[in-house]
Design goal:
CATH topology of the largest domain: Aminoglycoside 3'-phosphotransferase, Chain: A, domain 2
Shape: globular
Radius of gyration: 21 Å
Organism: Virgibacillus kekensis
CATH class of the largest domain: Alpha Beta
Oligomer: single chain
Distance between the termini: 63 Å
Protein name: Phosphotransferase
Number of helices: 11
CATH architecture of the largest domain: Alpha-Beta Complex
InterPro entries: Aminoglycoside_PTrfase, CcrZ_PhaseVar_Mediator, Kinase-like_dom_sf, Prot_kinase_dom
């Protein structure tokens, strides 16, 4: 942790904050508390200004070129899964999707909109190359649905998407402030990628209309088609990711998710055909 001592000084008590990269830490000195991260994106400054993440206190560049950011370390907790149903969550996600400041910053950082056609072609080739398409009928069925629904994903409004709206990434402070953290996977894409994840994993089907009204859009057939398109893409991506790493328990779990998604899409298509 020499780079932390260089940034802060030896009087600070420093402890790891967890995470896969090992680049996040908590720091405390008497009543002063900070959350530190190495080489965060410049995107963090705009997120802080928009009130979406805890306030950015300072940024320092070290001699080795690393950049350290310090944010307020606030008293609070992660949201519970059932709390994802609250209209405040929908309102926060809508605020992010409607922010032109966030969109312009990501574009200045070189991010380009993700096109469904490119993602579909790339993932299809990868699944074919590693044999998953031939090994699992569910994968072949999923590819068929993705191809069938691809047209509804085209020419959609592109916004800043968080792309990891797990309840663990939404913080509620003791002052009743709501923040969304962990922006490492952010991209410019169809907003259905974000709210589809929340609907599928946190909101009972009978409450989808109400949640989407809080977000600000009506539920319709095309919206549901787009939502399932991205959910299937996500399940396929992680099935391949875990399979490539020989993490077979996790790969099996993703395969079960895929079977469930296929079932829902299959049922929906039958219902739509009967209309």
């Amino acid at each position: 942790m020499n780079w932390l001592k260089q940034a802060l000084g030896s009087e600070w008590n420093i402890s790891p904050a967890g995470g896969l990269t090992g680049d996040a830490f908590f720091a405390e000195n008497d009543s002063r508390r900070l959350f530190l991260k190495r080489n965060s994106s410049p995107f963090l400054a705009v997120l802080s200004a928009e009130g979406i993440v805890p306030k950015l206190v300072w940024t320092k560049r070290l001699e080795n070129g690393d950049v350290i950011t310090a944010q307020e370390w606030l008293n609070g907790r992660e949201l519970k899964p059932e709390e994802m149903r609250h209209p405040r969550v929908a309102t926060l996600i809508r605020k992010i999707h409607e922010s032109t400041e966030l969109l312009h910053m990501l574009m200045r950082l070189g991010k380009k909109p993700v096109t469904p056609d490119e993602r579909f072609a790339e993932l299809s080739n990868q699944l074919h190359e590693n044999g998953l398409m031939e090994k699992h009928p569910e994968v072949l069925e999923s590819i068929s649905y993705l191809e069938k629904l691809l047209s509804v994903t085209r020419n959609q409004r592109k916004v800043v998407c968080h792309c990891d709206l797990n309840h663990n990434n939404i913080l509620l402070t003791k002052k009743d402030q709501l923040y969304l953290v962990d922006w490492d996977n952010a991209m410019i894409a169809d907003p259905a990628m974000d709210f589809g994840f929340v609907l599928k994993w946190y909101i009972p089907y009978e409450d989808w209309n109400e949640w989407l009204q809080s977000y600000g859009i009506p539920k319709d057939r095309q919206l549901i088609e787009r939502m399932y398109w991205y959910l299937i893409m996500d399940a396929l991506f992680y099935l391949k990711w875990h399979s490539d790493r020989n993490e077979m328990d996790k790969a099996f779990s993703r395969l079960e998710d895929l079977k469930e998604l296929n079932y829902h899409v299959r049922s929906a298509i039958l219902n739509w055909s009967a209309e």
